[in-house]
Amino acid sequence: MVAVEQRIVGDGEPVSGPALLLPLLAAKLGRPRMRPGVDRERLCAALDAAVASPVTVVCAGAGWGKTMLVSAWAQSRETPVAWLSLDRHDNDPQVFWAYVVAALRESGVVPAGNPLAGMGAIPADDGERVRRLADGLSRLPSPAVLVVDDFHEIIDARVLADLADLLRHPPAGLRLVLISRSQPALPLHRLRAAGHVTEIGAAQLAFTGDETATLLGGYGLARSTGEVAELLARTEGWAVGLHLSAGFLSAGGDERSVADFAGDSRGVLEYMIQEVLSGRSRRQRRFLLQTSICERVCAGLADAITADHDGQRTLERLEHDNDFVARLGERPLWFRYHPLFREALGHNLLRETPATISELHRRAARWHAGNNSVLEALEHAIAARDWPYVGRVVTGQAGLLVLSAHRGQLVRILEQVPPEQLTTTPELMVCGAVLIFHAGDYDAIPARLSYAREQLRRRPESDTRRPAEVMMLTLQLAADRSAGDMPAIVEGCDDLLQLITEDAGTDAAVVARYRAIALNNRGLARLWLGDVGGASRDLWAAIGAARAAGLELVEINAAGHLALLQVWHGSVREAGRLAADARETAARRGWQNTVQAVAAHLAGALVHLERNELGAAEEAAADGALAYHTDPEIAQQIVLSGVQARLAVAAGDAAKARFLLEAARSDRGGRVRLPHLDDWLSEVEAEAGGPGGGDGFRTRVVRAGAALASRDLRLAEDLLATEPRGILPVVTEVEARVVGALVADARGQASRAAELLTAAVSLAEREGVRRPFVTYAGGRLGELLHRLRLSNSDVTAFLDQVDAGIRATGKAARSLGLSEREADVLRCLPTMMTAAEIGAELSISVNTVKAHMRAIYRKLGVARRGEAVVLARENGLI
Question: What residues have CB less than 8 Å from 745, skipping those under 6 apart?
């Protein structure tokens, strides 16, 4: 011991030196004694496993509990652990290695006869020093554990070179545990590649929820699971932060909550200043204070804020030095500060240079705007109270977010603008109109925009005028769409397309985004107005434009409306593909509950309905209803009601369907112009057994089916004989041929019936349409399909699917004890057919029909036909 102390003091020191150093040596070689704390068995087990490797690095910033953990672990071990605590005065090879040898000797792991036991002065020659140390370490009888605390204090190149030489071929008798605030300046890459280094960092040291609750309990605090989670989020599991928060909460009694604990609390401020900021250069300290205004920072943003050019180097240096600055992702591009650290920095910035804060936020706002991160730009502009710039960012870049999934964020930012500022510039008036639009007061928007346009006209022609005009048109279109004014949308989209085409100075990316939005709006407006061809062209173009511009929500919306167009006027298969792709994209991006996904959900429901997949149809309709309620729009409300009505018809509840249709026609504003939807509602009403005022071919087919059920063959033939206008949609064509086949069969025209049914099955199989066959099941259709199956084996698989659908509709009836024939009779009861006519339809005698009817009444517990029909509909039997 004395020899080591004499070597540390050096030749020529006073003789009293060794005696004076005895307390210092004991302190440096003694393991810190920690007060009983939280049992961190998981980390002790990790250290047990770690010391199987030659080197273990426990690296994290100040206060993460590194020393506390390793000391508790060392105390729990049965075998001795050598301990050495370093400081800045140990940056000398002879001093450093003298302490290492002393620590090993003190722990008792160096046996007599080992070169380390008899080593006196540490050699001054580098080569000789390393050779003798390596010789002694290699002869230790069993792997000895040496903990070196505060290794970040060692910066001397000779010490680091000695240790690097030793670790090039790690001594078999040594297990080195380095505790450091920063990554050791050692070439550990080869050892890492060989699996000889174990690393424990801040992520592993961070307290868990259970450990946090235990720590709080030690302070006599009992907190809810939610409060523990909130405290973990504030501290990110930082050990000292948790202890400080526990002390903070204990001192305040019931008056303090977890939300009150922040980076400007006295204990946190003092710790950050003394342990984290005190060792920083003046330049680094200024950098940290100024960039603390950002939640995340990169080199370019840092340089813009600090008006300097070393952001990348500084950020990487700070990240390397401690865990209060962390990179986001694998590459060193973006960084963030620990929440409490950032709040402490912000407090110091406010205390030291409050006059600079607004300017720092202005610089950040302009950098973000220049890099198209517009929400961040707006947040910094708000913090700078730069209200005119807020308006310019909204009209020039951020306004389109009102039509996106980020609308809520945009509104929350704009709500921070003082109301009196929203009338000071045309751009801020547009911001006010955005807030009005979000509130749903569409009638108030035109007046606000008109006033903004008047103010713009007074402004000299400039680059700032056109963006405001484009944004105002886009906002007006959104209001017209919500109000259901389709002619106004078509006109407004024409104006918008012309405006962005005329402005040669507008950024091409901005033009592409506005073009996609205009095409989508005009396409859906044309659809609701009945211009199917124009709607198809615009919606296909909108999908392509949105994809090119990166506007996925617009693409989803356009595809959803195009799917509706297809299921009504074209191919069910194509509609299914479009709807499925749009819904999948929305789900993948977390947008399935946005208003832009409503059309895709409802189109999907109609496709499933035509395929007789009623469960899937109901799920898609429910998704559409959920998304619709997030941002109601009149056209989508009507489609939703129509879809729900058709599902009610499929379930046999015509009364519910008619109720839904009546609701869809009521409570409309004076600007609603949706003729195509009105025609569609008439078709659905006819399907539900109502008058169905429309005269479209689909309505006539439904009426023909009803006439067939009531044995009015002449009326059915007359309704089907009318020549349809244009190309028939797939669904209508299949249904018309099925009804026509049944009418021809009833007339005894077997060849004609077979021809029509063959054509219907061929088309339906290609498109996956099964609902018309299930709708008209019973009676002669089953026999006709059986004959077709015998004559054409190619359709067997499809007809098996149809049969499964027909059986599924009778499943509920059978669950109440009805036989298949009784279920067939039950499906005829809602019609006006007499018992004799039902018998003729089902090819059974009138007495058998009456017997089945009595059995039905008995099993349903009713006395009359009308009661049976009502109860059957309530139970989904018809």
Answer: 753, 780, 784
Tokens 């100024």 belong to residue: 290
Q: What is the DSSP letter of 878?
A: -
Q: Is the pLDDT of residue 610 over 60?
A: yes
Structure-token match 């990790």, residue found: 46
> Is 70 exceeded by the pLDDT of residue 282?
yes
What b/e string do you get for 383-414 counting C-beta neighbours within 10 Å, with b at 16 or more?
bbebbebbbbbbbbbbbbbbbbbebeebbebb
For residue 345 the two structure tokens come to 């920095």
The angle subtended at Cα 291 by Cα 287 and Cα 292, nearest 5°, is: 115
DSSP string, 781-805: HHHHHHHHHHH-GGGHHHHHHHHHH
Distance (Å, whole) CA 493 – CA 223:
57
Predicted structure pTM score: 0.69
- Cα–Cα distance between 431 and 444 in angstroms, integer? 14
Which residue type, as a one-letter code, is found at position 609? L
Angstrom distance (rounded) from CA 287 to CA 307:
10
Residues 373 and 407 sit within 8 Å (Cβ to Cβ): no
Q: What is the pLDDT of residue 8?
A: 42
pLDDT digits (tens, 9 = 90+) for 495-524: 999 888 876 556 777 888 889 999 999 999
Place of tokens 């989209």: 493
Q: Residue 129 in contact with residue 97, Cβ under 8 Å?
A: yes
Write out pLDDT tens, residues 346-369: 999 999 999 999 999 999 999 999
Return d(Cα 164, Cα 185) in angstroms, integer.
9
**Strand spans (E) along 484-553:** none
Q: For residues 503 and 558, what is the distance between their CA atoms, to the nearest angstrom?
A: 26
